[in-house]
């Protein structure tokens, strides 16, 4: 037994197919044709706006943007093809589906219509069922197009927000870089006939390497090379903390200095400094970072150096006669284990000898060959530096040589730093 379906149900079902189409612009110089087509469109629930020519339609489109355009091809004055082309040239936020009504069916004529911007064609006289099917197909296309447009707008808005956030972060990082640079107030300083020079090249705005020096009197100097685990902001904050603990400007806060009864200062043993730093770092809850370090104290009269190595690359002695020698005992990084007992070792330099402390940013740099520089590569790199270079110029030349060997694909992947002590430089 059949059951009649209410007209309201039919209309709602029909509108569901055309949810992206509400306003239809119907352009035809034939009043009869407009009346026939408009009747079907209105029955399906569309708002229909009529125009008897392409010129009139263009004027109408200056004030509103239809969702769908049905236009006759052959019209006096502006043809449907010209109207379509002009319509597409008009700017609009939303795309409108354009159907040309024509008796033309030749392939070259269809190609002309597509080139002008038409989406579909209907042969006259227009069949209502076919018209409905073409509009339904156009509605699906508009649905997808507008969904894509909404997503693109969302992406664009998100990118704008990210750009603003990036600019803010970039400004903060530039300021952070200035603050971090202040941790190393001077990159070269003479101590009598000896000299300490520093190199610090972060791979980004800020880095996790730290170098420094300080001296409480004319007889001794302390210097160090530190590499904090990880990269970026967290590591940089750790270097700021360490810079305060080893500050040359504030001896009372410097763990490397000890105040005497007469008010003067002397340098603590390197092993003691390493143990104090380890204890201080582990006392701060929530800190997961650790760091490697070479910390040295040099007797400026005798050339005897006392050093502690805490997981940092092995120091390199550059003898005045051209020989090079790696020294050290390895050791455990600072901040990994509680109550560590650090051992220290001695190195005796003769006039003209140099001691180079460096981060693994040197030895682990990837070369154009795909391999890492490693220790022997560092020695070869030093051999390629100009022999007469000294102090900061030597370190700058060494870094320049490294950049010439770096892989262009990977570039500078880690911070690069070094400390050079020259004993009674010749």
Automatic annotation (TrEMBL):
Pfam families: Response_reg, SpoIIE. Keywords: Hydrolase, Phosphoprotein. The modification 4-aspartylphosphate is found at residue 72. Residues 23-139 form the Response regulatory domain. The keyword Hydrolase applies. SMART domains: PP2C_SIG (SM00331), REC (SM00448). Signal peptide: none annotated. SUPFAM superfamilies: CheY-like. InterPro entries: Bact_Sigma-Reg, CheY-like_superfamily, PPM-type-like_dom_sf, PPM-type_phosphatase-like_dom, Sig_transdc_resp-reg_receiver. It comes from the Bacteria. This is Fused response regulator/phosphatase. It comes from Sedimentitalea todarodis.
